[in-house]
Amino acid sequence: MDWKGTTMSEEVKPRREWSAGMRLLFVALIGVVLVVPLMLVYALVYDRQNQAQTAQTEINAGWGGPQVVAGPVIVVPFRTTQTQNEEVNGKTTTRVVDVEKLLYISPVSNAVGTEIVPQERSKSIYHSVLFEAKVSGKASFALPPDLTRFGVTRERLMWDRAELRMGASDARGLTAGASMSADGKPLEVQPGKGPAASGGEGFFAFLSWNGEGTITIDYAFGLRGSRSLSLVPRGGRTEWAVKSPWTSPSFGGAFLPDRREIRDGGFTASYTIDKLALGAAPVAMEDPGFPEIDDGGDGSRVSSYGSKGEAAAVAADAASAGNPAAGGAAEVVGGPARAVTVGLVEPVNLYSKVDRSVKYGFLFIGFTFLAYFLFDVVAGARVAAAEYLLTGAGLVLFFVMLLAFAEVIGFTLAYLAASAAIIGLLTAYGAAVLKSWRRAQFMGALLVGLYALLFVLLNLEAWSLLIGALLLFAALAGVMYATRQVDWGAARKHEG
After folding, report:
1. How confident is the model over 390-425, as pLDDT tens digits?
2. Cα(244)–Cα(251) distance, integer angstroms
3. Distance between CA 341 and CA 344 in Å, rounded?
4. Residue ranges per domain, the chain?
Protein backbone atom coordinates (compact mmCIF):
# COMPACT_ATOMS: atom_id res chain seq x y z
CA MET A 1 0.00 0.00 0.00
CA ASP A 2 1.32 3.43 -0.85
CA TRP A 3 1.15 6.52 1.37
CA LYS A 4 -2.29 7.47 -0.03
CA GLY A 5 -3.76 4.20 1.14
CA THR A 6 -4.14 2.54 -2.23
CA THR A 7 -2.54 -0.75 -3.16
CA MET A 8 0.01 -0.96 -5.91
CA SER A 9 -2.10 -3.57 -7.57
CA GLU A 10 -4.95 -1.12 -8.11
CA GLU A 11 -5.00 0.07 -11.67
CA VAL A 12 -5.68 3.67 -12.60
CA LYS A 13 -8.68 3.64 -14.91
CA PRO A 14 -8.22 5.56 -18.14
CA ARG A 15 -10.55 8.49 -18.80
CA ARG A 16 -12.16 8.44 -22.16
CA GLU A 17 -12.53 11.62 -24.16
CA TRP A 18 -14.67 12.53 -27.11
CA SER A 19 -13.64 11.57 -30.58
CA ALA A 20 -12.11 14.12 -32.94
CA GLY A 21 -15.42 14.35 -34.81
CA MET A 22 -17.35 15.10 -31.63
CA ARG A 23 -14.79 17.71 -30.57
CA LEU A 24 -15.12 19.36 -34.00
CA LEU A 25 -18.89 19.52 -33.53
CA PHE A 26 -18.44 20.98 -30.04
CA VAL A 27 -16.07 23.68 -31.33
CA ALA A 28 -18.61 24.53 -34.04
CA LEU A 29 -21.29 24.95 -31.38
CA ILE A 30 -19.06 27.35 -29.44
CA GLY A 31 -18.61 29.33 -32.64
CA VAL A 32 -22.40 29.51 -33.04
CA VAL A 33 -22.73 30.81 -29.47
CA LEU A 34 -20.37 33.66 -30.37
CA VAL A 35 -22.85 34.79 -33.01
CA VAL A 36 -24.83 36.48 -30.22
CA PRO A 37 -22.12 38.96 -29.12
CA LEU A 38 -21.18 39.49 -32.76
CA MET A 39 -24.75 40.52 -33.54
CA LEU A 40 -24.71 42.82 -30.52
CA VAL A 41 -21.62 44.52 -31.97
CA TYR A 42 -23.45 44.86 -35.29
CA ALA A 43 -26.34 46.56 -33.47
CA LEU A 44 -23.85 48.80 -31.67
CA VAL A 45 -22.46 50.01 -35.00
CA TYR A 46 -25.99 50.80 -36.18
CA ASP A 47 -26.73 52.70 -32.97
CA ARG A 48 -23.53 54.75 -33.15
CA GLN A 49 -24.24 55.57 -36.78
CA ASN A 50 -27.67 56.87 -35.81
CA GLN A 51 -26.06 58.98 -33.08
CA ALA A 52 -23.63 60.39 -35.64
CA GLN A 53 -26.49 61.27 -37.98
CA THR A 54 -28.35 62.95 -35.13
CA ALA A 55 -25.25 64.97 -34.27
CA GLN A 56 -24.83 65.95 -37.94
CA THR A 57 -28.45 67.09 -38.04
CA GLU A 58 -27.82 69.28 -35.00
CA ILE A 59 -24.69 70.70 -36.64
CA ASN A 60 -26.66 71.46 -39.80
CA ALA A 61 -29.54 73.06 -37.90
CA GLY A 62 -29.79 76.73 -38.78
CA TRP A 63 -27.44 76.30 -41.73
CA GLY A 64 -29.37 74.26 -44.29
CA GLY A 65 -29.89 70.67 -45.29
CA PRO A 66 -29.36 68.94 -48.64
CA GLN A 67 -30.37 71.55 -51.21
CA VAL A 68 -32.46 71.09 -54.35
CA VAL A 69 -32.39 73.99 -56.82
CA ALA A 70 -35.37 74.16 -59.20
CA GLY A 71 -36.24 76.73 -61.84
CA PRO A 72 -36.50 79.31 -63.10
CA VAL A 73 -40.06 78.82 -64.31
CA ILE A 74 -42.67 81.36 -65.41
CA VAL A 75 -46.12 80.88 -63.93
CA VAL A 76 -49.11 82.58 -65.51
CA PRO A 77 -52.74 82.23 -64.29
CA PHE A 78 -55.43 81.66 -66.92
CA ARG A 79 -59.18 81.24 -67.09
CA THR A 80 -60.81 78.14 -68.45
CA THR A 81 -64.14 76.37 -68.26
CA GLN A 82 -64.82 73.18 -66.40
CA THR A 83 -67.82 70.89 -66.34
CA GLN A 84 -69.11 69.97 -62.90
CA ASN A 85 -71.75 67.43 -61.93
CA GLU A 86 -73.87 68.15 -58.87
CA GLU A 87 -76.58 66.09 -57.22
CA VAL A 88 -79.54 68.10 -55.85
CA ASN A 89 -82.64 66.37 -54.41
CA GLY A 90 -81.61 63.11 -55.97
CA LYS A 91 -81.16 64.61 -59.42
CA THR A 92 -77.81 65.07 -61.16
CA THR A 93 -77.29 68.39 -62.87
CA THR A 94 -74.42 69.46 -65.05
CA ARG A 95 -73.09 72.98 -65.25
CA VAL A 96 -70.17 74.74 -66.82
CA VAL A 97 -68.16 77.06 -64.56
CA ASP A 98 -65.15 79.30 -65.02
CA VAL A 99 -62.08 78.25 -63.03
CA GLU A 100 -58.62 79.68 -62.65
CA LYS A 101 -55.58 77.51 -63.24
CA LEU A 102 -51.84 78.02 -63.56
CA LEU A 103 -49.72 77.57 -66.66
CA TYR A 104 -46.10 76.59 -66.02
CA ILE A 105 -43.73 77.72 -68.75
CA SER A 106 -40.32 76.04 -68.77
CA PRO A 107 -37.24 77.76 -70.23
CA VAL A 108 -36.16 77.08 -73.78
CA SER A 109 -32.59 77.00 -72.49
CA ASN A 110 -30.97 77.34 -69.10
CA ALA A 111 -27.24 77.65 -68.47
CA VAL A 112 -26.26 77.36 -64.79
CA GLY A 113 -22.88 77.83 -63.14
CA THR A 114 -22.23 76.79 -59.54
CA GLU A 115 -19.23 77.10 -57.26
CA ILE A 116 -19.39 75.03 -54.07
CA VAL A 117 -17.17 76.04 -51.16
CA PRO A 118 -17.18 73.26 -48.50
CA GLN A 119 -16.33 73.42 -44.84
CA GLU A 120 -16.29 70.87 -42.05
CA ARG A 121 -17.76 71.47 -38.62
CA SER A 122 -17.59 69.28 -35.54
CA LYS A 123 -19.62 68.55 -32.45
CA SER A 124 -17.77 66.42 -29.93
CA ILE A 125 -16.33 63.53 -31.98
CA TYR A 126 -18.79 63.91 -34.87
CA HIS A 127 -18.25 65.82 -38.09
CA SER A 128 -20.49 67.20 -40.82
CA VAL A 129 -19.73 68.61 -44.27
CA LEU A 130 -21.38 71.98 -44.92
CA PHE A 131 -21.10 74.20 -47.97
CA GLU A 132 -21.78 77.61 -49.38
CA ALA A 133 -22.71 77.70 -53.06
CA LYS A 134 -22.78 80.55 -55.52
CA VAL A 135 -25.41 79.87 -58.16
CA SER A 136 -25.82 82.00 -61.28
CA GLY A 137 -27.49 81.40 -64.60
CA LYS A 138 -29.11 82.68 -67.75
CA ALA A 139 -32.40 81.31 -69.07
CA SER A 140 -34.48 82.20 -72.10
CA PHE A 141 -38.27 81.75 -72.37
CA ALA A 142 -40.64 81.69 -75.33
CA LEU A 143 -44.15 80.40 -75.77
CA PRO A 144 -44.47 77.47 -78.17
CA PRO A 145 -46.05 78.50 -81.49
CA ASP A 146 -48.66 75.73 -81.14
CA LEU A 147 -49.79 76.83 -77.67
CA THR A 148 -53.45 76.09 -78.40
CA ARG A 149 -52.64 72.40 -78.81
CA PHE A 150 -51.70 72.33 -75.14
CA GLY A 151 -55.25 73.42 -74.25
CA VAL A 152 -54.50 77.10 -73.62
CA THR A 153 -55.16 80.20 -75.73
CA ARG A 154 -53.20 83.44 -75.40
CA GLU A 155 -56.25 85.62 -74.75
CA ARG A 156 -57.07 83.67 -71.58
CA LEU A 157 -53.62 84.19 -70.03
CA MET A 158 -53.46 86.84 -67.28
CA TRP A 159 -50.08 88.39 -68.02
CA ASP A 160 -50.58 91.11 -65.43
CA ARG A 161 -50.15 88.41 -62.74
CA ALA A 162 -47.23 86.54 -64.31
CA GLU A 163 -44.53 85.39 -61.91
CA LEU A 164 -40.95 84.20 -62.26
CA ARG A 165 -40.23 81.49 -59.68
CA MET A 166 -36.96 80.03 -58.39
CA GLY A 167 -36.70 77.23 -55.86
CA ALA A 168 -34.36 76.17 -53.08
CA SER A 169 -35.61 73.24 -51.01
CA ASP A 170 -34.35 74.57 -47.66
CA ALA A 171 -35.03 78.31 -47.55
CA ARG A 172 -32.87 78.66 -44.42
CA GLY A 173 -29.88 78.50 -46.75
CA LEU A 174 -30.94 81.62 -48.70
CA THR A 175 -28.94 84.05 -46.57
CA ALA A 176 -26.66 85.67 -49.16
CA GLY A 177 -29.38 87.50 -51.10
CA ALA A 178 -30.68 86.91 -54.62
CA SER A 179 -31.04 88.93 -57.81
CA MET A 180 -33.17 88.43 -60.92
CA SER A 181 -33.49 90.48 -64.07
CA ALA A 182 -35.57 90.27 -67.26
CA ASP A 183 -33.88 91.48 -70.46
CA GLY A 184 -31.43 93.42 -68.30
CA LYS A 185 -34.09 95.08 -66.11
CA PRO A 186 -33.84 94.23 -62.39
CA LEU A 187 -36.80 92.54 -60.74
CA GLU A 188 -37.89 92.88 -57.13
CA VAL A 189 -37.37 89.52 -55.43
CA GLN A 190 -39.97 88.26 -52.95
CA PRO A 191 -39.78 85.21 -50.63
CA GLY A 192 -41.76 82.05 -51.20
CA LYS A 193 -43.64 80.51 -54.14
CA GLY A 194 -40.86 78.15 -55.18
CA PRO A 195 -41.61 75.41 -57.74
CA ALA A 196 -43.05 72.15 -56.47
CA ALA A 197 -39.74 70.43 -57.29
CA SER A 198 -38.21 72.42 -54.42
CA GLY A 199 -41.08 71.69 -52.04
CA GLY A 200 -42.65 75.11 -52.64
CA GLU A 201 -39.72 76.97 -51.02
CA GLY A 202 -37.62 79.59 -52.73
CA PHE A 203 -38.30 83.08 -54.08
CA PHE A 204 -40.16 84.79 -56.93
CA ALA A 205 -40.65 88.08 -58.72
CA PHE A 206 -43.55 89.60 -60.63
CA LEU A 207 -42.75 89.65 -64.31
CA SER A 208 -43.75 92.15 -66.98
CA TRP A 209 -44.07 90.05 -70.12
CA ASN A 210 -46.88 89.53 -72.59
CA GLY A 211 -45.65 86.29 -74.08
CA GLU A 212 -44.40 87.88 -77.29
CA GLY A 213 -40.96 86.93 -78.58
CA THR A 214 -38.20 85.70 -76.27
CA ILE A 215 -37.36 86.97 -72.82
CA THR A 216 -33.96 86.44 -71.19
CA ILE A 217 -33.70 85.95 -67.45
CA ASP A 218 -30.48 86.40 -65.47
CA TYR A 219 -30.36 85.23 -61.87
CA ALA A 220 -27.83 84.77 -59.08
CA PHE A 221 -28.05 83.81 -55.44
CA GLY A 222 -26.03 82.36 -52.60
CA LEU A 223 -27.07 79.14 -50.94
CA ARG A 224 -26.01 77.31 -47.80
CA GLY A 225 -26.51 73.60 -47.35
CA SER A 226 -25.02 70.29 -46.31
CA ARG A 227 -24.08 66.96 -47.86
CA SER A 228 -25.40 67.49 -51.40
CA LEU A 229 -26.60 69.99 -53.97
CA SER A 230 -29.11 68.96 -56.64
CA LEU A 231 -30.40 70.68 -59.74
CA VAL A 232 -33.76 69.93 -61.34
CA PRO A 233 -33.46 70.43 -65.12
CA ARG A 234 -36.55 71.45 -67.07
CA GLY A 235 -37.39 72.88 -70.45
CA GLY A 236 -35.51 72.62 -73.70
CA ARG A 237 -31.83 72.40 -72.84
CA THR A 238 -30.09 72.59 -69.47
CA GLU A 239 -26.36 73.10 -69.05
CA TRP A 240 -24.80 72.91 -65.59
CA ALA A 241 -21.17 73.57 -64.78
CA VAL A 242 -20.13 72.94 -61.19
CA LYS A 243 -16.76 73.22 -59.46
CA SER A 244 -15.47 72.89 -55.91
CA PRO A 245 -12.21 72.43 -53.97
CA TRP A 246 -13.70 69.31 -52.34
CA THR A 247 -11.69 66.25 -53.37
CA SER A 248 -14.26 63.52 -52.62
CA PRO A 249 -17.38 64.24 -54.66
CA SER A 250 -20.08 61.81 -55.64
CA PHE A 251 -22.29 62.11 -58.70
CA GLY A 252 -25.80 60.75 -58.53
CA GLY A 253 -29.34 61.37 -59.63
CA ALA A 254 -31.08 60.83 -62.96
CA PHE A 255 -28.12 61.95 -65.09
CA LEU A 256 -24.35 61.65 -64.84
CA PRO A 257 -21.96 64.41 -65.92
CA ASP A 258 -20.73 64.50 -69.50
CA ARG A 259 -17.29 65.48 -68.25
CA ARG A 260 -15.77 65.38 -64.80
CA GLU A 261 -12.30 65.86 -63.44
CA ILE A 262 -11.14 65.17 -59.90
CA ARG A 263 -7.75 66.39 -58.76
CA ASP A 264 -5.96 67.14 -55.51
CA GLY A 265 -7.21 70.72 -55.76
CA GLY A 266 -10.88 69.80 -56.18
CA PHE A 267 -13.24 68.77 -58.95
CA THR A 268 -15.12 70.14 -61.94
CA ALA A 269 -18.12 68.61 -63.70
CA SER A 270 -20.41 69.63 -66.54
CA TYR A 271 -23.85 68.39 -67.56
CA THR A 272 -25.86 68.87 -70.75
CA ILE A 273 -29.45 67.62 -70.59
CA ASP A 274 -31.78 67.78 -73.57
CA LYS A 275 -35.56 68.14 -73.41
CA LEU A 276 -36.12 64.69 -74.90
CA ALA A 277 -34.34 63.12 -71.90
CA LEU A 278 -36.75 64.84 -69.52
CA GLY A 279 -39.96 63.69 -71.16
CA ALA A 280 -41.81 66.88 -70.15
CA ALA A 281 -43.74 69.36 -72.28
CA PRO A 282 -42.50 72.98 -72.53
CA VAL A 283 -45.74 74.20 -70.95
CA ALA A 284 -47.96 72.35 -68.51
CA MET A 285 -50.81 72.81 -66.07
CA GLU A 286 -49.07 70.59 -63.53
CA ASP A 287 -45.81 71.25 -61.73
CA PRO A 288 -43.51 68.21 -61.27
CA GLY A 289 -43.23 67.20 -57.62
CA PHE A 290 -40.28 66.86 -55.31
CA PRO A 291 -37.60 64.52 -56.73
CA GLU A 292 -36.09 61.54 -54.97
CA ILE A 293 -32.51 62.55 -54.30
CA ASP A 294 -29.68 60.04 -54.19
CA ASP A 295 -26.61 61.80 -52.82
CA GLY A 296 -24.35 59.10 -54.28
CA GLY A 297 -22.52 58.58 -51.04
CA ASP A 298 -23.81 55.68 -48.94
CA GLY A 299 -26.78 54.93 -51.05
CA SER A 300 -29.23 56.74 -48.84
CA ARG A 301 -31.90 58.96 -50.27
CA VAL A 302 -32.14 62.42 -48.80
CA SER A 303 -34.56 65.30 -49.20
CA SER A 304 -35.67 68.28 -47.22
CA TYR A 305 -39.15 66.87 -46.84
CA GLY A 306 -38.35 63.19 -46.82
CA SER A 307 -40.27 62.30 -49.97
CA LYS A 308 -42.15 63.70 -52.91
CA GLY A 309 -45.48 62.85 -51.34
CA GLU A 310 -44.68 64.67 -48.12
CA ALA A 311 -43.50 67.75 -50.04
CA ALA A 312 -46.76 67.81 -51.96
CA ALA A 313 -48.72 67.45 -48.72
CA VAL A 314 -46.90 70.42 -47.20
CA ALA A 315 -47.72 72.54 -50.25
CA ALA A 316 -51.35 71.41 -50.27
CA ASP A 317 -51.77 72.23 -46.58
CA ALA A 318 -50.38 75.70 -47.18
CA ALA A 319 -52.76 76.26 -50.09
CA SER A 320 -55.78 75.08 -48.11
CA ALA A 321 -54.83 77.54 -45.38
CA GLY A 322 -55.18 80.39 -47.86
CA ASN A 323 -51.49 80.83 -48.64
CA PRO A 324 -51.19 81.76 -52.34
CA ALA A 325 -47.47 81.17 -52.22
CA ALA A 326 -48.12 77.46 -52.39
CA GLY A 327 -50.67 77.67 -55.17
CA GLY A 328 -48.46 76.03 -57.75
CA ALA A 329 -47.09 73.33 -55.49
CA ALA A 330 -50.59 72.26 -54.45
CA GLU A 331 -51.31 70.99 -57.96
CA VAL A 332 -48.66 68.29 -57.91
CA VAL A 333 -50.15 65.31 -59.69
CA GLY A 334 -47.60 64.60 -62.38
CA GLY A 335 -45.10 62.62 -60.33
CA PRO A 336 -41.64 63.60 -59.08
CA ALA A 337 -39.18 65.63 -61.10
CA ARG A 338 -35.78 64.34 -62.16
CA ALA A 339 -32.66 65.76 -60.58
CA VAL A 340 -28.88 65.61 -60.91
CA THR A 341 -26.92 65.58 -57.69
CA VAL A 342 -23.41 66.41 -56.57
CA GLY A 343 -22.67 65.06 -53.10
CA LEU A 344 -19.88 66.10 -50.77
CA VAL A 345 -19.11 62.78 -49.12
CA GLU A 346 -16.56 62.08 -46.44
CA PRO A 347 -13.40 60.44 -47.84
CA VAL A 348 -13.84 57.52 -45.43
CA ASN A 349 -17.25 56.49 -44.18
CA LEU A 350 -16.00 54.80 -41.03
CA TYR A 351 -19.36 53.33 -40.01
CA SER A 352 -19.85 51.57 -43.34
CA LYS A 353 -16.32 50.12 -43.11
CA VAL A 354 -16.78 48.97 -39.50
CA ASP A 355 -20.13 47.49 -40.50
CA ARG A 356 -18.50 45.55 -43.33
CA SER A 357 -15.66 44.39 -41.10
CA VAL A 358 -18.12 42.97 -38.54
CA LYS A 359 -19.60 40.84 -41.31
CA TYR A 360 -16.20 39.16 -41.61
CA GLY A 361 -16.20 38.32 -37.88
CA PHE A 362 -17.14 34.71 -38.63
CA LEU A 363 -14.01 34.43 -40.77
CA PHE A 364 -11.78 35.43 -37.84
CA ILE A 365 -13.52 33.15 -35.36
CA GLY A 366 -13.58 30.23 -37.77
CA PHE A 367 -9.91 30.39 -38.78
CA THR A 368 -8.66 30.92 -35.22
CA PHE A 369 -10.76 28.08 -33.84
CA LEU A 370 -9.65 25.89 -36.72
CA ALA A 371 -6.00 26.49 -35.86
CA TYR A 372 -6.63 25.63 -32.20
CA PHE A 373 -8.55 22.53 -33.25
CA LEU A 374 -5.71 21.31 -35.47
CA PHE A 375 -3.24 21.74 -32.62
CA ASP A 376 -5.67 19.73 -30.50
CA VAL A 377 -6.31 16.72 -32.76
CA VAL A 378 -2.99 16.65 -34.66
CA ALA A 379 -0.38 17.98 -32.23
CA GLY A 380 -2.00 16.73 -29.03
CA ALA A 381 -2.50 20.11 -27.34
CA ARG A 382 -5.61 20.09 -25.21
CA VAL A 383 -7.81 23.18 -25.67
CA ALA A 384 -10.72 23.50 -23.26
CA ALA A 385 -14.13 24.97 -24.09
CA ALA A 386 -13.49 27.98 -21.83
CA GLU A 387 -10.29 28.72 -23.74
CA TYR A 388 -12.20 28.71 -27.02
CA LEU A 389 -14.76 31.10 -25.51
CA LEU A 390 -12.15 33.50 -24.14
CA THR A 391 -10.31 33.54 -27.46
CA GLY A 392 -13.59 34.19 -29.28
CA ALA A 393 -14.39 37.02 -26.87
CA GLY A 394 -11.08 38.64 -27.74
CA LEU A 395 -11.86 38.39 -31.45
CA VAL A 396 -15.28 40.00 -30.94
CA LEU A 397 -13.74 42.73 -28.77
CA PHE A 398 -11.60 43.78 -31.74
CA PHE A 399 -14.66 45.17 -33.53
CA VAL A 400 -15.79 47.13 -30.48
CA MET A 401 -12.32 48.66 -30.13
CA LEU A 402 -12.23 49.39 -33.86
CA LEU A 403 -15.51 51.31 -33.66
CA ALA A 404 -14.52 53.21 -30.51
CA PHE A 405 -11.10 54.23 -31.83
CA ALA A 406 -12.36 55.04 -35.36
CA GLU A 407 -14.73 57.70 -34.04
CA VAL A 408 -11.79 59.50 -32.47
CA ILE A 409 -8.66 58.90 -34.57
CA GLY A 410 -10.02 57.72 -37.92
CA PHE A 411 -10.50 54.27 -39.41
CA THR A 412 -6.96 53.40 -40.54
CA LEU A 413 -5.20 54.30 -37.28
CA ALA A 414 -8.01 52.66 -35.31
CA TYR A 415 -7.61 49.47 -37.30
CA LEU A 416 -3.86 49.37 -36.61
CA ALA A 417 -4.32 50.06 -32.88
CA ALA A 418 -7.16 47.58 -32.32
CA SER A 419 -5.58 44.77 -34.34
CA ALA A 420 -2.19 45.22 -32.63
CA ALA A 421 -3.83 45.04 -29.19
CA ILE A 422 -5.85 41.90 -29.97
CA ILE A 423 -2.98 40.13 -31.75
CA GLY A 424 -0.70 40.76 -28.79
CA LEU A 425 -3.34 39.61 -26.30
CA LEU A 426 -4.25 36.39 -28.14
CA THR A 427 -0.64 35.52 -28.93
CA ALA A 428 0.31 35.72 -25.25
CA TYR A 429 -2.80 33.77 -24.26
CA GLY A 430 -2.09 31.20 -26.96
CA ALA A 431 1.29 30.47 -25.41
CA ALA A 432 -0.46 29.44 -22.21
CA VAL A 433 -3.22 27.49 -23.96
CA LEU A 434 -0.97 25.62 -26.38
CA LYS A 435 1.91 25.20 -23.87
CA SER A 436 4.41 26.50 -26.44
CA TRP A 437 5.65 29.91 -27.54
CA ARG A 438 6.44 28.44 -30.93
CA ARG A 439 2.82 27.48 -31.42
CA ALA A 440 1.73 30.87 -30.08
CA GLN A 441 3.94 32.58 -32.66
CA PHE A 442 2.14 30.60 -35.35
CA MET A 443 -1.19 31.83 -33.97
CA GLY A 444 0.12 35.39 -33.94
CA ALA A 445 1.25 35.10 -37.55
CA LEU A 446 -2.15 33.69 -38.48
CA LEU A 447 -3.92 36.65 -36.87
CA VAL A 448 -1.60 39.15 -38.57
CA GLY A 449 -2.45 37.56 -41.90
CA LEU A 450 -6.18 37.60 -41.17
CA TYR A 451 -6.24 41.26 -40.12
CA ALA A 452 -4.10 42.26 -43.11
CA LEU A 453 -6.42 40.33 -45.40
CA LEU A 454 -9.50 41.97 -43.91
CA PHE A 455 -8.02 45.42 -44.46
CA VAL A 456 -7.42 44.54 -48.11
CA LEU A 457 -10.97 43.22 -48.48
CA LEU A 458 -12.40 46.44 -47.02
CA ASN A 459 -10.53 48.52 -49.56
CA LEU A 460 -11.06 46.21 -52.56
CA GLU A 461 -14.80 45.75 -52.35
CA ALA A 462 -15.17 44.57 -55.96
CA TRP A 463 -12.66 41.73 -55.42
CA SER A 464 -13.71 40.72 -51.91
CA LEU A 465 -15.84 37.76 -52.99
CA LEU A 466 -13.14 36.29 -55.21
CA ILE A 467 -10.42 36.73 -52.59
CA GLY A 468 -12.64 35.27 -49.88
CA ALA A 469 -13.54 32.25 -52.01
CA LEU A 470 -9.89 31.51 -52.80
CA LEU A 471 -8.96 31.88 -49.13
CA LEU A 472 -11.66 29.44 -48.04
CA PHE A 473 -10.55 26.97 -50.69
CA ALA A 474 -6.95 27.18 -49.48
CA ALA A 475 -8.06 26.75 -45.85
CA LEU A 476 -10.17 23.70 -46.69
CA ALA A 477 -7.32 22.14 -48.62
CA GLY A 478 -4.93 22.74 -45.72
CA VAL A 479 -7.31 21.18 -43.20
CA MET A 480 -7.84 18.16 -45.43
CA TYR A 481 -4.11 17.67 -45.73
CA ALA A 482 -3.38 18.14 -42.02
CA THR A 483 -6.13 15.76 -40.91
CA ARG A 484 -5.74 13.13 -43.61
CA GLN A 485 -4.60 10.53 -41.04
CA VAL A 486 -6.97 11.47 -38.21
CA ASP A 487 -9.41 8.78 -37.11
CA TRP A 488 -12.46 10.98 -36.55
CA GLY A 489 -14.48 8.22 -34.85
CA ALA A 490 -11.84 7.02 -32.37
CA ALA A 491 -11.93 8.39 -28.85
CA ARG A 492 -8.61 9.59 -27.40
CA LYS A 493 -7.57 8.07 -24.08
CA HIS A 494 -5.86 10.02 -21.38
CA GLU A 495 -4.02 8.38 -18.52
CA GLY A 496 -4.48 10.23 -15.30
Report:
1. 888 888 999 999 999 998 888 889 999 999 999 999
2. 13
3. 10
4. 19-51+350-489, 66-344
